[in-house]
Amino acid sequence: MPKLNRTQIKTARVATPEWKLVSGPAITRTFEFKDFVAAIRFVTRVAKLAEKAWHHPDIDIRWNKVTLTLATHSEGGLTEKDFNLAKQFDRL
Q: What's the CATH number where 40 sits?
């Protein structure tokens, strides 16, 4: 899947407004839950979606907060895969 250019990234971000663009480039979002157990449940659901898509986010767990970061490393940037998966994570 080809890497997106700046204009394409700007357009794709409209559908994922909670995700921030960071250097790399990559997109990242932090989800907050009531406690650690709820955060881990979310991560389990993320893992199932990621495995099905064969596209895996970087995951940082801090008690009740889970930060996901997406980039397509094989392409050296962002692709449609990243934004498609971000939208699926948002629906969880």
A: 3.30.1360.20
Examine residue 1 and state whether it is found in any structural domain, yes or no. no
Q: Look-up: residue for tokens 């899947």?
A: 1
Q: What is the pTM of this model?
A: 0.94
Q: Give 3-state DSSP helix, strand, coil % of the chain, rounded to 5.
A: 45, 25, 30
User: Could you report the per-residue pLDDT of 35-52, keeping only the tens digit for each?
Assistant: 999 999 999 999 999 999
Tokens of 52: 């099905």
> Is-contact 1 73, C-beta < 8 A?
no
Domain that holds residue 59: 6-91
What is the total count of domains within the chain?
1
